Amino acid sequence: MSLWTMIFLLAIGGMIFAAWRHHHDARHGIVRDSMGEPIIDRSGNSAREEEMARELAELRDRVKVLERIATEDRESLSLAREIEQLRDERSKSQ
To answer: Do 54 and 68 sit in the same domain of this protein?
Structure first.
């Protein structure tokens, strides 16, 4: 392999790598500055992220309500059982 063939292959490899990196960055919303440092571009995803954050907040509120209902229901059932036990004990003692 001659020196010029090696230089040509390295140049082609560099161009292929640059094209792959550009494609990869475009897929993931990464923008690079003039120094080549990655900057994440979130401008296209902000509406979707806001929608997801709003939905997450709603789901958290629903879970809080369901936890409260489940907890209150257990307490009322155990209280009802205790009242029935006291009534049964009172009726047996009479």
So the answer is: yes
Q: 94 and 48 in one domain?
A: yes
pLDDT bin (cut points 50, 70, 90) of residue 11 is very high
- C-alpha 40/C-alpha 73 separation (Å) is 48
Measure the CA–CA gap between 87 and 94, rounded to whole angstroms: 11
CA distance 49 to 41: 13
What is the model's pTM?
Answer: 0.40
Same domain, 57 and 83: yes
**Residues 50 and 79 both lie in one domain:** yes
